[in-house]
Design brief:
By secondary structure, the protein is an alpha/beta fold. It contains 3 helices and 7 strands, in the order αβββαβββαβ. The chain has one domain: Nucleoside Triphosphate Pyrophosphohydrolase, CATH 3.90.79. It has a 5-stranded mixed sheet with strand order 3-1-5-4-7, sandwiched between helices. Keywords: Hydrolase, Magnesium.
Length: 164
């Protein structure tokens, strides 16, 4: 290809590639179908339990780890429900890829232990309320995750804004 740049080494080629932010979230509901969401003090919108994938772990391991770190609960992440892609924006200079896993159903009276200084609150929100509180990008993930839970088919969605 005539327009393709030439690289002196594999390292130069790798350095030229776009980076992607990766994160994993947990879809958790109670027996009444309410969604567990959490609120960080440094963000306006509510979010899923979850976080960025650490070096050396895969997205499923990240969801399992984040569940424990952010709630005190222990459970292995279940099925992959949705993958959300977000293009670069004013908020993020690289694309973001967010994996949403099924962490199942917990009773609403299950004790939740939030990490001090990271999360300020949690709530079990009915789906319409959760959709409003999560904001557009996370709401898209929630809708996709619930649909995947219902029919067993994971979804791939493109978010309109980062919501990372």
């Amino acid at each position: 290809m005539a327009d393709a740049p030439e690289f002196a080494s594999r390292e130069e080629w790798l350095a030229s590639l776009h980076r992607v932010y990766a994160a994993a979230g947990c879809l958790i509901t109670d027996p009444d179908g309410r969604v567990l969401i959490v609120k960080a003090g440094y963000r306006d919108a509510w979010q899923f339990v979850g976080g960025t994938v650490d070096l050396g772990e895969n997205p499923r391991q990240c969801a399992t780890r984040e569940l424990h770190e952010e709630t005190g609960l222990r459970r292995e992440a279940g099925e992959l429900l949705a993958v959300a892609w977000t293009n670069p924006s004013g908020e993020l200079d690289h694309p973001a890829c967010h994996f949403l896993f099924d962490l199942g159903v917990f009773p609403a009276d299950t004790p939740i232990t939030l990490p001090p200084g990271e999360l300020d609150a949690h709530r079990w929100a009915p789906v319409p309320e959760a959709l409003a509180l999560l904001g557009p990008a996370r709401a898209l993930r929630l809708e996709a995750g619930l649909a995947a839970r219902a029919d067993g088919r994971a979804r791939l969605v493109t978010a309109p804004s980062s919501g990372f």
